[in-house]
């Protein structure tokens, strides 16, 4: 890192408005990634104050530096790496007493610190009054008041950062006292730590490690350089326990809370006219045991209605754009030259990637709606309301939000599990999310349900597909929590922040971050899958056909007895038959016929088996593959004809089993890639693939064979 760049670590509790402050300071000059080996996001951004270049590292939201969660581990590692010139500690002004516990721990790092009392407007509305001069004296750090959502105080914040950065000897925060015996132990262990401390950790004071050894912090005690100090640290812990009647970790926490309580008692007061918070009034209804779930269902209905209603227009525009792009390339491409490349570009890349990117407006709108609900504080309530229900299946409320997102797309849903502190619960949720019926499966339902089920049954069948996915997901979670991820359930403690109106800026930044990640992780994989699918459905090329299709097509086109409409229909049919023979001869067709041997007990023939290959790349491709396999060109434009072909080939029972298998089988390639990335385990990724395949096969087998035995669904439901 350039020495002329001043580095700031932005630290604070979850829901303190830290991200808003980060966005205000850095704007769009941000970089989002992941810390190596873990799933916690790493955000950094650049800003300039006068002629001063600053890098801001946005640490994960944490309550302490105890190394008990992935967020706390990576926050400490970032600080351990050194090079931090200033800690910007963001405090929720309305919950200062709780937020300041982290401040007392950050003080032990002996780095210059600036306290940012954010959301000061909320605190004043609640009747809180602050003596910031006294607070600054208690903690040995200057204080700036801000309202991140409106930009209030940002100029003062920048000015204070600039002032501290140019001080010859910046002020250091006041370190807490822990009592005579404990302070004696800290001094003794500090001297011992200094002797064995490695060069890479010397940027962190030896006193900090001494305190962590006294607290019996597992991460610090496991470091090899401190192995020789463990016995001494244990002796001091026993001495402290004997003297005070409680262990050293609890004692030190009590002293920190005592310092905070004293400071808040002296410097923070509550007016007698403190008015009742609007949040409490709303929560009487939103978190009500009877009204909470119906209100949530209505909210989600509005989200999906917004997503699909508003998204329809840009989706149509994108479809026209990709269609025009393909037609344009076809029109300017020299006839007879590099036909394979033309077909690869138009049918493989534009057709495959374009078929997925048309859903991008829905994804973005869903992200906007979810970001809005998160920003208002409602999503925390939804998780709280669903907590009791989720406990029945070994999970808690925080697993509910990612599973809900799974109805839109499994990729961002898997990424959303990062908010779950418990590693077992997070992995369990990741493993079952793809059972939720994502938006990519909708084209399959939209094709099959109207073809096989009368109007009065269509809503019921669609509802069944979604319910089956939810039931299997929860059953899978219960099984996993009883076996692989067995352990005591985590206590679900979620802060319910006050309701706020999120800013458009923060919503758009969140949408942009998630959209970029979605495009990077999904679109690139779809591109590769589309190319692979094009190749295996093209080669080997069939040279000899059952009949001379080209001659027949020429004969139809030259006929004077047929109308233009009849010519178009017959040419389309002949071209489709020719394309079908080509596909059966290709690698994909041969694989499909091989798979049909295994899938025949499920009621699937070689055509369905072949289409399922494309479904692994992206569920939407299943419909397009069926269109080609049933000799229908442009399946999207002639879906009624395709539906009539399906009705001739399959029964409603087979159709239902096709949808059931597509719902439960292995997720798409993009989801598999994200699961590998988020779990950092090929073992769990392959276990998920195998598990989904087994569940889909067994349940579909039971439904098909049972339905056949009972003669259910063997006729159209009219």
From TrEMBL:
GO cellular component, one term: plasma membrane
PROSITE patterns: G_FEOB
Transmembrane regions: 290-311, 317-336, 348-373, 393-415, 427-454, 460-480, 515-536, 611-632, 653-674, 686-704
Domain of life: Bacteria
Membrane topology: Multi-pass membrane protein
Gene Ontology terms, MF aspect: ferrous iron transmembrane transporter activity; GTP binding; metal ion binding
InterPro entries named in the record: Fe2_transport_prot-B, Fe2_transport_prot_B_C, FeoB_Cyto, FeoB_GTPase, G_FEOB_dom, Gate_dom, GTP-bd, P-loop_NTPase
Protein name stated in the entry: Ferrous iron transport protein B
Species assigned in the record: Victivallis vadensis
């Amino acid at each position: 890192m350039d020495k002329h760049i001043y580095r700031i670590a932005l630290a604070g509790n979850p829901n303190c408005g830290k991200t808003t402050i980060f966005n205000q300071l850095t704007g769009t000059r941000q970089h989002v990634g992941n810390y190596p080996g873990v799933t916690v996001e790493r955000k950094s951004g650049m800003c300039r104050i006068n002629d001063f270049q600053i890098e801001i590292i946005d640490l994960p939201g944490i309550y302490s530096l105890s190394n008990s969660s992935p967020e706390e581990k990576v926050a400490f590692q970032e600080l351990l790496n050194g090079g931090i010139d200033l800690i910007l500690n963001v405090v929720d002004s309305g919950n200062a007493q709780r937020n300041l516990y982290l401040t007392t721990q950050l003080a032990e790092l002996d780095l210059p610190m600036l306290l940012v009392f954010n959301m000061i407007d909320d605190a004043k509305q609640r009747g809180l009054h602050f003596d910031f001069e006294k607070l600054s004296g208690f903690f040995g750090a200057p204080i700036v008041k801000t309202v991140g959502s409106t930009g209030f105080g940002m100029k003062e914040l920048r000015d204070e950062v600039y002032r501290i950065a140019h001080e010859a000897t910046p002020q250091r925060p006041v370190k807490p006292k822990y009592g005579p015996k404990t302070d004696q132990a800290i001094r003794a262990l500090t001297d011992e730590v200094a002797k064995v401390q490695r060069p890479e950790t010397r940027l962190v004071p030896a006193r900090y490690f001494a305190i962590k050894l006294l607290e019996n912090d597992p991460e610090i005690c496991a470091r090899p350089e401190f192995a020789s100090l463990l016995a001494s640290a244990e002796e001091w812990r026993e001495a402290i326990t004997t003297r005070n009647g409680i262990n050293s970790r609890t004692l030190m926490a009590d002293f920190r809370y005592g310092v905070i309580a004293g400071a808040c008692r002296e410097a923070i007061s509550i007016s007698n006219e403190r008015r009742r918070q609007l949040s409490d009034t709303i929560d009487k209804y939103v978190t009500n045991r009877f009204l909470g779930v119906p209100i949530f269902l209505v909210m989600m209905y509005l989200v999906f209605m917004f997503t699909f209603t508003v998204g329809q227009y840009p989706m149509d525009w994108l479809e026209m754009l990709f269609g025009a792009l393909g037609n344009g390339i076809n029109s300017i491409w020299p006839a007879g030259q590099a036909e394979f490349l033309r077909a690869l570009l138009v049918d493989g890349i534009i057709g495959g990637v374009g078929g997925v990117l048309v859903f991008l407006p829905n994804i973005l709108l869903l992200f906007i709606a979810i970001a809005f609900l998160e920003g208002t504080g409602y999503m925390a309530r939804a998780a709280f309301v669903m907590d009791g229900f989720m406990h029945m299946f070994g999970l808690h409320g925080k697993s509910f939000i990612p599973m809900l997102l799974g109805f839109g797309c499994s990729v961002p849903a898997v990424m959303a599990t990062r908010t779950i502190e418990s590693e077992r619960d997070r992995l369990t949720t990741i493993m079952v999310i793809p059972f939720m019926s994502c938006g990519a499966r909708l084209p399959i339902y939209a094709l099959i349900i109207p073809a096989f089920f009368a109007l009065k049954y269509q809503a019921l069948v669609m509802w069944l597909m979604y319910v089956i996915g939810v039931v299997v997901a929860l059953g899978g979670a219960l099984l996993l929590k009883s076996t692989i991820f067995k352990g005591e359930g985590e206590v679900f403690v979620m802060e319910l922040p006050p309701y706020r109106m999120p800013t458009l800026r923060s919503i758009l930044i969140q949408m942009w971050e998630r959209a970029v990640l979605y495009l990077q992780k999904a679109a690139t994989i779809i591109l590769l899958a589309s190319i692979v699918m094009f190749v295996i459905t093209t080669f080997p090329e069939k040279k000899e056909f059952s009949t001379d299709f080209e001659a027949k097509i020429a004969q139809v086109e030259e006929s004077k007895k047929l109308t233009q409409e009849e010519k178009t229909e017959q040419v389309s049919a002949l071209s489709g038959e020719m394309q079908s023979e080509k596909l059966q001869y290709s690698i994909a067709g041969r694989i499909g016929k091989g798979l049909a041997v295994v899938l025949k007990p499920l009621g699937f023939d070689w055509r369905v088996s072949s289409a399922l290959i494309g479904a692994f790349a992206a569920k939407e491709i299943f419909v397009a593959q069926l269109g080609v396999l049933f000799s229908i060109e442009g399946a999207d434009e002639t879906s009624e004809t395709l539906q009539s072909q399906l009705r001739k080939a399959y029964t409603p029972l087979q159709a239902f089993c096709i949808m059931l298998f597509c719902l439960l089988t292995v997720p798409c390639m993009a989801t598999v890639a994200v699961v590998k990335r988020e779990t950092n385990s090929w073992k769990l990724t392959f276990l998920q693939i195998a598990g989904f395949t087994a569940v889909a096969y067994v349940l579909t087998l039971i439904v098909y064979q049972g339905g056949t035995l009972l003669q259910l669904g063997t006729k159209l439901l009219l």
